[in-house]
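Issue 218. Parser rejects a valid record. Input:
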Amino acid sequence: MTMKIRRCLILVALPLSVGACDNKGSLGEYMDGTGGQGATGTSGDGGDGDDGGDTHGASEGGTGGDTAGQTAGTTAGETGGGTTAGPLGCDGGGCAIECGVGGCGPLDHFDAEGCQRPSCSDDDQCGAQERCYVGELFGQCVSSGLFCDYDDELAMCICGGSEDCGGGYCVDADVYPEGNAGPDGPARLDNGCAPDDGPAIDIRIGLVDGSCESVFGAEPNLRFSLHDAEFGETGTYEIGIQHSGTVGQGWYQDGDETHPVWIGTVTISQWGLDAGIAGSYEVFAGEQKDTGFGHYVGTFDGAQFCDSNPGCG
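Output the parser choked on:
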């Protein structure tokens, strides 16, 4: 998916922030005066004594009233932070912003020192004990091109970003949001067809029973189609329409509503002729109002293989 990227800046060390770009994207749009997960940049020398200086940016879920520059942090094109104490360098490059009340939290785009967290698009780009927090999955607009540079003339750290909502950043795995319990009822394994009419492996979870003739029950259920899984091999497979369908797809059904998996993984941890297959999954499916996508995790085991003939091609 190709996006047209533009850069825009917010200057927050001034009494009134100066900024451009007000496109918050299709996911995670915030109402005027409401901030997403953002760092709060504080600057100034106390102003005229009315409020002890200008504070720009809203903490997670907070309301910033009529103050200019209130949606700082991960909102695309509205990220900024100021420091008047000279350039504070960060290990990954760039400069550190000043963290105000509620800013620089464990899930914020900026860490406890005010440094930008490493950008990413998936977990493989993060450390062993980290995960990639992609904002749009949770209803937040995260710029994919955030940058922070120190301006010697203005004596402040200036942050800006691309005008999109497709970014992510690495966070500690133990603070990554937990998913909701997904279907974990009886399961089975079927032969299936890939989009090119080649062979695929279908995993069905949430059946009335595990027999080859069983149908889905009344509770939510899942179906995965893995296009490049080798019969009998274990492993983790990336699925979802964000992967262009080349690896695998999935569908989450709740009542009469069927939602394609936006992005997710299916892990087959056991595959035996007698014991069947066992594994786990984590998927994002079904866009939710103001909260991104439904986030579901679960396990399956004892799924027997039904050697059906789907008639591919």
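Fixed in the parser; the record now loads. The chain has two domains: 1-177, 180-306.
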